[in-house]
Amino acid sequence: MSTASDPWGRVADDGTVYVRTAEGEQVIGSWQAGSPDEAMAFYKRKFESLETEISLLEQRMTSTDLSAGQAKSAIGRLTQAVADAHCIGDLAGLRGRLDALGGTIEQRREEHRAAREHARTEAHEVRERIVAEAERLALEATHWKAGGERMRQLLEEWKAAPRGDRTTEAVLWKRLSAARNGFAKRRKAYFAGLEEERATIRQRKEELVTRAEELSTSTDWSATATAYRELMRSWKSAGRTDRTAEDDLWNRFKTAQDGFFAARSQVLDAKDRELREHVVVKEQLLTEAEKLLPVTDSRSARSALRAIFERWERAGAVPRDAQDRLEGGLRRIEEAVRKAEDSQWRRTNPEALSRARGTVEQIRSAVTQLERQLAKAEAAGDNKAQQRAEEALAARRSWLAEAERTLAELSG
Question: Omega before 294 cis (within 30°)?
Fold first, then answer.
């Protein structure tokens, strides 16, 4: 029988099949069924089959998410297969490749452990953030609608968050539950207090409405209008109750108030029309009084003005915007009559006329005397005496002119 040889093995002439390894040749079988070349081909195909399985495992570990456990199991099986293999080829190379895959498994395990730890850390941070925000809302939130909505969102974020360490999650979940319960209690207490406050406001506004309704039929226009202004100030400062009660109470309050002011306006409008009629009468009286000017007979002017005064008073009140004009016009005429009376009295007073005549005579005597003194000074050439006499004479002549005017008025 002939032989067949290969770099990794040979078939001896007696049919014994050898594989070459680093430790030397090893018998892997005996071939009697055919030629040595056929034997060589057979044992090399067995090697190629093992090599193919190892190549497929390398590809799976590179391109798929093969777990470390599955990979380790496959490497162990193939390592045993190589150890038990009866084939011709680079068996040491196959063992080296399997050893390299084993190292890859360890590296992947470390990577997986690091990834899991990172994921747990991230999961903890996400849940810690959720819990921290929930606790802040539980302590600080005052916008209850927005706060409640955010609490619901945080719960959904918790459910969607990645899972981490179970023990840590349990602690965080207790904190989140406590925060949600705390928020709910604060919100409930707030609305309970708000309802109590609204009930107090509602009672206060009901009292204001009752008082407004009582005043709605009053005819004490000025005092009641002031009272309504005070009620309105009290209404605004009382605060707001729930919307339904607030609207109902306000409608009652406004109805009462509008009823009073509508009645007042009706009465005041009628009164204003009456006062405007008084204006027409007083304007006519004022025109009549103005005809007394200028005063020529103070006695008859006073009598006529007295009659006008009596009719003026009977005419009644006028609107404020016309009062000053009318009253001022009548006062101006009354002052003119009074001045005419004063002038007439002075003219007819004997004592005043006598005093005026005495004054004129006294000043005339002084003027005559000063004229003589001036003549003497001029004759004597006494300039100083002349100057003194001239100054005194000028003053006395001025006084005389005034005294003569007064006497003329009184002599009328």
Answer: yes
How many domains is the chain built from? Answer: 5
Q: 320 lies in which domain range?
A: 272-348
Residue 243 pLDDT: 87
Shared domain for 51 and 101, answered yes or no, is: yes
Distances (CA, A) of 409 to 175, 251, 345: 113, 77, 11
Q: Which of 35, 33, 16 is nearest to 88 (CA)?
A: 16
Domain stop point among 300, 333, 348: 348
Mean pLDDT of the chain: 85
Beta strands per DSSP E along 56-119? none
Q: What is the H or E stretch that residue 19 is in? A: strand 16-21
C-alpha 36/C-alpha 38 separation (Å) is 5
Last residue of a domain, one of 196, 218, 253: 196
Region 297-316 average pLDDT: 86
Which residues have CB under 8 Å from 204's CB, separation 6+?
A: 238
Asked whether residue 289 falls in the same domain as residue 310, the answer is yes
For the whole model, what pTM was predicted? Answer: 0.39
Structure tokens at 262: 């509508």
